Amino acid sequence: MKTNVFPDNFLWGGAIAANQVEGAWNVDGKGVSSADLAVCVPKGTRREYTKQVEAGIYYPNHEGIHFYEHYREDLALFHEMGFKALRTSINWTRIFPNGDEETPNEAGLKFYDDLFDACHEYGIEPVVTLSHYETPQYLTDHYNGWESRRMINFFEKFGQTVLSRFHSKVKYWLTFNEINVITLNPMMAGGVDIPLSDKQRLYQAAHYQLVASAKVTAWGHEHYPDAKIGMMMLYPISYPETCSPADQLENMHFMDQHYYFSDVQVRGAYSNKALKFLKANDVSLDFTDDDRQALAKGTVDYIGFSYYMSMVSSSSPDKKIKVSGNMLDGIQNPYLETSEWDWQIDPTGLRLSLNQLYDRYQIPVFVVENGLGAKDILTEEQTVDDQYRIDYLDAHLKAVRDAIELDGVPVMGYTAWGCIDLVSASTGQMSKRYGFIYVDRNDDGSGSYRRYKKRSFDWYKSVIETNGANL
Ligand code: BGP
């Protein structure tokens, strides 16, 4: 048993996103967001979106897990596990239903007031993402989402509104969830339909998000110096397939696609390599002096990242895609096992990721998503024997522990993804479950929405109770 490795103020907890749990998609003045138009698709296929809500189509996010009504009950369960932190997001369309209104929707603000108050009653620190895959659909219809520079102002207004309203209740903020996903899944991350081959449009939309993020970060720092405002990226650590220099180079290029974003958010400017990449791809950005200043001013306090799996890069053109993954498909790593959804399970990759990010940027890092999506079976005893999830999380938390203890990485916290079962972002399925708490809801929407503790519930409780000493 190792003691005192995790810092006393380590933010142990769980992570959810508004659109994947809240439901109540059209309640109390909420407008339609991109997530409300996403349908449920089978494993291995990409989530599809309709242009408007259509009768007869099943939209899993409309109901979520009824967190909007059940959040007190759910927070009580999180508290029972000993959570110190809960990462969630503010659904933009609860605050500005269309996205471009002058005044916010008070009922939406009130919901988050109550939610954050309830978190504090349970001693849980909210960690809040401003935009987690929930772009107002009105902005998509009228401005083409993040393809328009106008989005910067709308996001600034949204960010300033919620920061000023909640700054006394929320200390930890993240601007965009997985900001590097806009070029991989623009509809999900930016409410805009751009072919993945169209780099000009993709990187322009990414630029506007980067500027918007920086502006809100700078404004937040100026007005609320105690606020900790971070960035959030999907960290797809990748290994070269062989020790051939060509594979190393390929691997470097792969990672550069992702550092493109974190370099801007942490260092305040595009790297030379990023500029060369844009040039090589004939991308010419609408990039003003004001943007440049905003990026320089709006650097972040910490790096939040999601980690589920590692990738492999190969220079061989004949390498076929063999495994699917989180937003990115890749090559099979023969040393790793895969989840039921074919994501490659690699705890050591998490230790390496923490090291790579800290070595590169020298600011605190925070694992804000990690977990195993699996099919669970509710037993007659009304629990789930999810030893496989315990094994996955135990191994990954040991990797975090090693990064802290052996490598000296300052890790702020760990929020397990989908700490209560929720709607999958990539497929819309409920059957892809991550939680310590089982929610009785099926892929077709049927179910009682009742909550049940899985075996992992008590396990995680004891991890937090012992501050990780029992790992
Ligand atoms: C991340 C997203 C989350 C979440 C998670 C798991 O990319 O930030 O919203 O859903 O992946 O993915 P999935 O739900 O597809 O299993």
How would a textbook summarize the main sheet? 8 strands, parallel, barrel
Q: Give me the oligomer status.
A: single chain
The SSE string, one letter per element, is EHHEHHEHHEHHEEHHHEEEEHEHEEEH
In this entry the ligands are: 6-O-phosphono-beta-D-galactopyranose
Structural class by sheet pairing and helices = alpha/beta
Instruction: Using the alpha-carbon principal axes, give the shape.
Output: globular
Question: Mind explaining what this structure looks like?
Answer:
The chain is α/β, with parallel strands linked by helices. Helices cover 38% and strands 13% of the residues. The chain has 14 helices and 14 strands. The strands form four sheets. Strands 1-2-3-4-5-7-11-12 form an eight-stranded parallel β-barrel, surrounded by five helices. A two-stranded parallel sheet has the order 6-8. β11, α13 and β12 form a beta-alpha-beta unit. α6 runs parallel beside α8 and α8 packs across α11. The model has no long low-confidence stretch (mean pLDDT 96). The structure holds 6-O-phosphono-beta-D-galactopyranose. Residues 17, 177-178, 234, 306, 326, 369, 373, 417, 424-426, 432 line the site of 6-O-phosphono-beta-D-galactopyranose.
